[in-house]
Protein: tRNA (guanine-N(1)-)-methyltransferase
Organism: Roseococcus suduntuyensis
Amino acid sequence: MSFHATALTLFPEMFPGPLGLSLAGRALREGIWRLDAQDIRAQAHDRHRTVDDTPFGGGAGMVMRPDVVDAAIAAAMPEGDTRPLVYLTPRGRLLDQALVREIASGPGVVLLCGRYEGVDQRVIEARAMREISLGDYVLSGGEMAALTLLDACVRLLPGVMGGAESALEESHSAGLLEYPHYTRPAEWQGRAVPPVLLSGHHAEVARWRREQAEAATRERRPDLWKRIAAGAAAA
Ligand code: ADE
């Protein structure tokens, strides 16, 4: 059974979008994963096909109605569908590679993409959604976040990446930022490639890369560095 993704959205034309190209697109055509985008508006049954309304308590913007969102979920997830239901929102827990791995190793995912100010809180609770954020910034809707989450999952599926090497490399880097990469020409605009990379000494290359990865992590992501150092101390 292939990884099955369903996007619930007011803009189904946004899917598969970039995921129809390159590695993810080839995997989609090969049946390694499936994607369907379902129009939430198809579940709006009044004359104007209303999906949103003004917020109780006042304030800016509109809120997606719980009854319409719930009907869209019911239509997308038959009884016994075990896929996690994810709501993309800046209020969610931050997406990281561990969560990507967890989702990619399951049967698939249902992604609720919000627009406007968001979705009525009651349907989030009633459906026990997992709320996930890409980062501390606000997108105009969940669609780009859903595409990003899927891209990160699909590249981990068996058969997508010529996998073994890249997967191994990732586990070796143990959550550090990557070391810098170089290719030909060996000198470009007066800039030389670090000599150790041309030395042919595999152990020294490995050591240099490890040092570079650690230095970059320490300087650019002290938050990550602290967590890794704490983990190493605990192990
Ligand atoms: N929707 C709007 N902003 C978002 C974010 N930062 N992450 C996930 N979904 C979002």
